[in-house]
Backbone:
């Protein structure tokens, strides 16, 4: 049933965000620490487990695939509700700080991407 | 009378109106992509850019903070694009992701979050100093804002920065997230953003969940779960480091 997939997804998200909240409280920051990431890990582990432990039927899968496919439209809606005015109209310093952070981070990617730790090296 | 009841129906069913509206927007963007750019610029990249332009237009007409969603007719866009649905859809993209790719990039992914936070903070702090700021609290708050628009105000509040500086830090973070959304598909080929391994590091370096979500969607939707995974740890790590270790470092140097 489709609702099983949606419910499984909800379960993963709620558990993840809950754990992320507690993690944030434990280390004393006013933010959720990796809640969504934990939820994703949970879903990945559950879906990998299902190969031999419990079967996820195709209708159940559709419940998850639907939300996965809604991802881009949701991101488009997210873009349409950003406070773009505030970003643009607050003066040069904020814009330069934001732009510089992005440029430096982009430049860093190729350097870190070369690091492959723990991977089997056939050569 | 017909117009009145139409507006009434659209407003009462706000979320459904948003689905229809975004559907039309996405369709229009894919048409533009196919006809004007022959598919060179991905349809979703155009849709996201159009969304940002509309958010600008909405913001300048309504003078609100929610872009298009400040029009009562399109209030549903705010719900559809809000954190709840965004996070739900992000989690869904993890279904079918490779556990192996995660394991392989585990260490460098975690390291990229730390490096990303420190890097953005330092860059933001240097810009603040070069604009004449000398107060370590203000410098740290702006540096934190260059990490994400959540780390900025959290740090500013913790350190007791004044509200003008906090507003600047939010603006720096918003600029970052908008630029990551628009810029990623263009720089992706040049920086080698084409594998789950690279996407994990990219998420950790950029950190802005909305920026990474939009940027990867417009580049290659298959990479979304990997980037989003590390990005979601960034804000938490930033809120941990910026008001503590990084602020102390700034105070020691200035």
Residues:
């Amino acid at each position: 049933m489709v609702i099983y997939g949606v419910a499984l997804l909800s379960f993963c998200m709620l558990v993840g965000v809950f754990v992320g909240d507690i993690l944030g409280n434990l280390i004393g920051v006013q933010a959720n620490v990796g809640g969504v990431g934990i939820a994703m890990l949970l879903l990945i582990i559950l879906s990998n487990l299902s190969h031999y432990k419990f079967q996820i039927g195709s209708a159940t899968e559709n419940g998850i695939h639907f939300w996965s496919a809604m991802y881009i439209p949701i991101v488009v809606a997210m873009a349409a509700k950003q406070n773009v005015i505030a970003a643009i109209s607050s003066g040069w310093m904020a814009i330069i700080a934001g732009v510089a952070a992005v440029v430096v981070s982009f430049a860093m990617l190729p350097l870190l991407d070369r690091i492959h730790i723990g991977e089997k090296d056939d050569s | 009378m017909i117009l009145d009841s139409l507006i009434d129906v659209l407003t009462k069913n706000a979320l459904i109106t948003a689905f229809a509206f975004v559907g039309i927007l996405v369709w229009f963007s894919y048409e533009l992509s196919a006809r004007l750019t022959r598919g060179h610029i991905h349809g979703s990249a155009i849709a996201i850019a159009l969304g940002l332009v509309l958010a600008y237009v909405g913001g300048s007409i309504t003078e609100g903070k929610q872009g298009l969603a400040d029009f009562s007719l399109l209030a549903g866009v705010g719900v559809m694009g809000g954190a709840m649905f965004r996070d739900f859809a992000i989690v869904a993209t993890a279904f079918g992701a490779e556990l192996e790719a995660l394991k392989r990039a585990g260490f460098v992914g975690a390291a990229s979050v730390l490096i990303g936070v420190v890097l953005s903070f330092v860059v933001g702090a240097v810009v603040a100093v070069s604009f004449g700021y000398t107060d370590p609290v203000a410098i740290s708050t702006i540096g934190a804002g260059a990490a994400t628009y959540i780390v900025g105000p959290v740090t500013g509040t913790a350190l007791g920065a004044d509200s003008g500086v906090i507003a600047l830090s939010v603006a720096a973070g918003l600029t970052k997230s908008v630029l990551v959304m628009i810029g990623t598909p263009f720089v992706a080929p040049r920086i080698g953003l084409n594998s789950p391994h690279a996407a994990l590091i990219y998420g950790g370096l950029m950190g802005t969940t909305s920026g990474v979500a939009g940027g990867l969607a417009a580049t290659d939707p298959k990479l979304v779960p990997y980037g989003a995974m590390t990005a979601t740890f960034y804000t938490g790590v930033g809120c941990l480091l910026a008001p503590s270790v990084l602020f102390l470092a700034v105070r020691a140097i200035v």
User: Anything to note?
Assistant: Residues 2-81 of chain B form one domain. Chain B has two domains: 2-81, 99-253. Chain B is about 80% helix and 0% strand. The longest helix of chain B spans residues 224-253.
